[in-house]
From TrEMBL:
Keywords per UniProt: ATP-binding, Nucleotide-binding, Translocase, Transport
Protein name per its UniProtKB record: Phosphonate ABC transporter ATP-binding protein
InterPro entries: AAA+_ATPase, ABC_transporter-like_ATP-bd, ABC_transporter-like_CS, MacB-like_ATP-bd, P-loop_NTPase
Domain of life: Bacteria
Ranges of residues in domain ABC transporter: 2-224
Gene Ontology CC: one annotated term: membrane protein complex
SMART domains: AAA
Any GO MF annotation of the entry: ATP hydrolysis activity
Length: 224
C-alpha cells in the first residue's frame, strides 16, 4: 500500500545541506498497524507528512496504492489525499467557529458529497462516538478527550483507506488515551491501515509493528 524507496529530505542553505531524513526504505501493507517511534527531532513527523502527502521528499520515490506520488502534479496528489487518507493530530486541529456536527462534516464538503448523504454519514459518526447530545457544541465546550474523538470522527468520515495519527494521545489523560487507542485497535481489526507517531510504549503496544527512527534513518523495524 505504501512504499518509500531511498527517500531523503533535506534543507539547503548557502553553504551546506542539512538532512532531516536519509535513505528511508519502508513498505507498509494494507491492514497493518504501524508505530513510528524515536527521539524528538529524529524525523518521525516528516515521514508521516510525506506518507500523508502534506510534504514531499527531496529525493527518492513514494508509491501509494501503486501510484507514483513523487511524479504526480499537486492537484492529483491532493485528490488522492482527500479520498484515501484521514489525519488525527495531537492538537486536535478542530475549527473553533464550527460546531461538533460541522467539524465532522467538513471533509465531506471538500469531497462534494451531497447534502442528504452528508446528513446520514454525520449522524452515523455522532452515534458511533456517542456524541449526539454534543453535536451543537463548539470545541471549547468539550474536554480534551471529547475534542480528540471529534478529530477521529472527522478523520474517519470520508472512509479513508489509511489513518495517520501524529501523537494522537499527547494531550489526553490516561483513560482518554486508552479509549482512543482501543478505538484504533478496533478500526484496525476491521481492516483499516493505521500509522501512528508516538513517544508512548503503551500506545505502540496496540500496533503490530514498531519502526524506530534515529537521526533521520530507520534504526530498527520489528514486528510484535
Amino acid at each position: 500500500m505504501i512504499k518509500l524507496k531511498d527517500v531523503d529530505k533535506f534543507i539547503d542553505s548557502k553553504y551546506q545541506r542539512t538532512f532531516i531524513l536519509k535513505g528511508i526504505d519502508l513498505e507498509i501493507k494494507q491492514g497493518e498497524f504501524v508505530t513510528i517511534m524515536g527521539p524528538s527531532g529524529a524525523g518521525k513527523s516528516t515521514v508521516m507528512n510525506i506518507i500523508g502527502m502534506l510534504d514531499e521528499p527531496s529525493q527518492g520515490e513514494y508509491y501509494f496504492l501503486d501510484e507514483p506520488i513523487h511524479k504526480m502534479k499537486e492537484r492529483k496528489r491532493s485528490e488522492l489525499h482527500k479520498h484515501h487518507i484521514g489525519f488525527v493530530f495531537q492538537a486536535y486541529h478542530l475549527i473553533d467557529e464550527l460546531t461538533v456536527y460541522e467539524n465532522i462534516e467538513t471533509p465531506l464538503l471538500y469531497k462534494g458529497v451531497k447534502s442528504s448523504e452528508r446528513k446520514s454519514l454525520v449522524a452515523e459518526m455522532l452515534d458511533r462516538f456517542q456524541m449526539v447530545a454534543k453535536k451543537d457544541l463548539f470545541p471549547e465546550q468539550l474536554s480534551g478527550g471529547q475534542q480528540q474523538l471529534v478529530g477521529v470522527a472527522r478523520a474517519l468520515i470520508g472512509q479513508p483507506k489509511l489513518l495517520l495519527a501524529d501523537e494522537p494521545t499527547g494531550n489526553l489523560h490516561s483513560d482518554q488515551a486508552e479509549e482512543i487507542m482501543k478505538l484504533f485497535q478496533k478500526l484496525n481489526s476491521e481492516g483499516m491501515t493505521i500509522v501512528q507517531v508516538t513517544h508512548s510504549k503503551e500506545n505502540a503496544a496496540y500496533g503490530k509493528r514498531t519502526i524506530n527512527i534515529v537521526d533521520g534513518a530507520i534504526d530498527t523495524d520489528s514486528t510484535h
